[in-house]
Structure formats: structure tokens, C-alpha cells
Write a structure and sequence with these properties.
single chain, alpha/beta, Rossmann fold, Alpha-Beta Plaits, 2 domains, 8-stranded mixed sheet, 5-stranded parallel sheet, 11 helices, rod-shaped
């Protein structure tokens, strides 16, 4: 409601208008006027008053019909209306109230009664406006809340999708804007780690599906924990095979060391699992190949089904080294060894003639990690 409140006086008698205007203006109200029913409708629609004093007996359209029409106008429907009538007939009062009027005064209008009715109706209008404003504010809050919920759901879906490939820390960093969109194709130097369970094909052929499932569940759980601990990116896993890489989507200062430490931790974990597997009659062991080089990385697939993939000869080299490795053996390429030479004990292997590579490949077997000097 305005301050001061705006009051419309609708009366065809100029003397009555003058008296009412003088009394209400003295109380600090803003006044607009109309001289007949049609003008009252027009002025009410245009000025949007906070209160209407409406004479019943007016030319063109009487006050009761004006009242009835005002209650159908948007923006004026909840404006309080006080009927001012020279007639004390109860039927007219009832007709006016039925038409939507909120109060009535009889002529001659008593100043005290006028002030009291106006004050009461403006208080009601103020309360109505407050409730309306609060309802609108609640609606805006609800709309904002709904939008935020939608945004958070979308963010959770994106985080869930990213966590299929990345550690939770990296997924949160990407969503938070700390890294570029990794699903967009880009080129980067990475360290690639390939894992393979030796003897798995023969084991799967000779074992029940439940046994195979139990072995894979334990294997994936243990390897998955280590991938997350070392903040590696899981590119794919197919049965007993896994491909992990480092230095993407967020560059790291020591990708070779992370890859080596993860691989050694995996070998140690599989040695423990392998002892249990051998007690059950399963002849399984782990082979690992690690290589370093440039690759094009990003989402591949089609709408509704995409994977995160690295494409380049470095992934083929890591895969071939893994295939060449014996059970419980880790083979690394020369660039990997160069990056961690002070951290590892190795044996030179090769040169190896690997499928898909025209030149022999120099490789090293990772014996173990060097213990820090006391």
C-alpha cells in the first residue's frame, strides 16, 4: 500500500466530493475523484487506489453495479469499498455488500465515523498487501529453490558421471570450475597403466559363474581403491583388464611416480589376494605395463552412451608391455624409467619386438621401490 494511501471518491455531487476530500486530505491521504459510475470504473482501473468511497446513487451506472464490476477488475478486486448512501434501507445495504462492498456510511457522513471506517479498511488493505507480497516472495523463493534443486541435481548427475572415470577429488574440482571440461577432446602427455590378470581366461572357462564373479568383485574393489588413492583416471575395465592414466584431466607434477607407486601397490595387493586364490585352486596373477606419451583424450561414443578415452600409440605401448609381462611382473617404457630412475630398482629388458611397433622397444622390469635413506 502507498504512503500516503490513495483514496478514490466517486460521487456525482460536487459538494459531497469537496467535503470528503477536505476531511480525508486533512488526515494525510492522497485523493482522486470521479463524478459518475463510468468515470469511477476508469479512474479506479487507472489509478489503482488503496480505498474507494462509492456513492450508491450516481448517473450512468449506479454504485452497486460499479462495485460489482470493480470486483472483477484485476488489480482492483481486493481494494476495499465503502458505500456512501443517503438511504438507510437495509435492502440497499445488503445489495451493496452482496455486490462486494466491505463497509457502508450513510449521509450526512459523520467525520468520526468516516475516519474510523477509512482507518479500518486501510488497515485491512495493508494486511492484504502484506500477505500478497509475502505470497509473491514465497513463490519467488520456491521458484529459486526449484531452480537451485534442478541445478544441484544436474551437478550431481554430472559429478556422478565424472566419478565413473575420475577420483572424487578430480570430479569435484572439474564441476567446481577448477579444470576445463575433460570430455571435450584435447591433447596431453600422459602416463598409461595397463593391468591384466594372468590365467583368468582358463580360470573363467573352468569355474562356475559365481566363482568368477566373486574373484572379479574382489579384484575390482582392491584395484579401484588404489586408483582413487593415487588419483588416477580409470579409462576402462573389461573383465580382468584395466587401463588407468595420469596427468589428465588435471595435470600433476609427478605422473610417472604416481603410476609407479600405484602399480607397485597393486602388485603387493594382488600377492595377498593371490595367496587366497591359490588356496581355492585358482591360478591367477597380475601383469602390468606402463608407458608415457602424448594422446588425444575426451568423450567418444554416441548420444546416450559415451565413454572417456585416450587415443594414441602410448596406450598401445602400455597394452603391449602388459601383454609381454610375466605374472607378477611390471614392465615400464624408457620414458617412465627416466622419470623415476632415482626411486626404483629395475632390470633392463629387451629390446622388445612388440606387435604394432616397427622399432624395438627398450623396457625395464620394475623390481621394487627404493627405500628412503635413513
Amino acid at each position: 500500500m502507498r504512503n500516503p494511501p490513495r483514496i478514490l471518491i466517486a460521487d456525482d455531487n460536487p459538494a459531497n466530493v469537496r467535503i470528503l476530500r477536505m476531511r480525508l486530505a486533512a488526515d494525510g491521504h492522497e485523493i482522486v475523484t470521479a463524478g459518475d459510475g463510468e468515470e469511477a470504473l476508469a479512474v479506479a482501473n487507472e489509478s489503482q487506489p488503496d480505498l474507494i468511497l462509492l456513492d450508491v446513487m450516481m448517473p450512468k451506472i449506479d454504485g452497486i453495479e460499479v462495485c460489482r464490476r470493480l470486483k472483477k477488475l484485476q488489480g482492483v478486486a481486493f481494494t476495499p469499498i465503502i458505500l456512501v448512501t443517503a438511504m438507510a434501507d437495509a435492502k440497499d445495504v445488503v445489495a451493496g455488500l452482496d455486490a462486494g462492498a466491505d463497509e457502508y456510511l450513510t449521509k450526512p457522513v459523520d467525520h468520526a465515523a468516516l475516519s474510523a471506517r477509512v482507518h479500518s479498511m486501510l488497515r485491512i488493505k495493508s494486511l492484504h498487501d502484506t500477505v500478497t507480497a509475502q505470497a509473491e516472495e514465497i513463490a519467488r523463493w520456491n521458484a529459486t529453490l526449484a531452480r537451485r534443486v534442478d541445478e544441484q541435481v544436474a551437478e550431481l548427475e554430472r559429478v556422478g558421471r565424472l566419478k565413473r572415470f575420475f577420483s572424487p577429488q578430480l570430479a569435484d574440482l572439474i564441476v567446481g570450475g577448477g579444470a576445463a571440461d575433460p570430455l571435450r577432446p584435447h591433447r596431453r602427455e600422459i602416463c598409461v597403466v595397463f593391468l591384466d590378470l594372468r590365467g583368468f581366461t582358463a580360470f573363467a572357462e573352468a569355474s562356475e559363474p559365481e566363482e568368477v564373479s566373486d574373484v572379479l568383485a574382489a579384484y575390482h574393489a582392491q584395484m579401484g581403491r588404489l586408483i582413487l588413492e593415487h588419483e588416477g583416471t580409470l579409462e576402462r575395465f573389461t573383465g580382468d583388464g584395466m587401463m588407468i592414466f595420469f596427468n589428465d584431466p588435471v595435470p600433476v607434477a609427478n605422473p610417472e611416480e604416481r603410476a609407479i607407486r600405484m602399480a607397485e601397490a597393486m602388485r603387493s595387493r594382488i600377492r595377498d589376494l593371490g595367496a587366497e586364490w591359490r588356496r581355492r585352486g585358482y591360478d591367477l596373477d597380475l601383469s602390468i605395463g606402463i608407458a608415457k606419451g602424448y594422446a588425444t583424450i575426451g568423450a567418444i561414443g554416441f548420444e546416450g552412451r559415451q565413454d572417456y578415452a585416450a587415443i594414441g600409440s602410448v596406450t598401445n605401448l602400455a597394452s603391449r608391455l602388459c601383454a609381454e609381462a610375466s605374472p607378477d611382473q611390471i614392465l615400464v617404457s624408457q620414458p617412465i624409467h627416466a622419470g623415476v630412475a632415482e626411486l626404483v630398482n629395475v632390470k633392463a629388458v629387451g629390446p622388445l619386438h612388440l606387435k604394432g611397433f616397427r622399432r624395438p622397444i627398450t623396457a625395464y622390469e620394475l623390481v621394487d621401490l627404493r627405500q628412503p635413506a635413513p
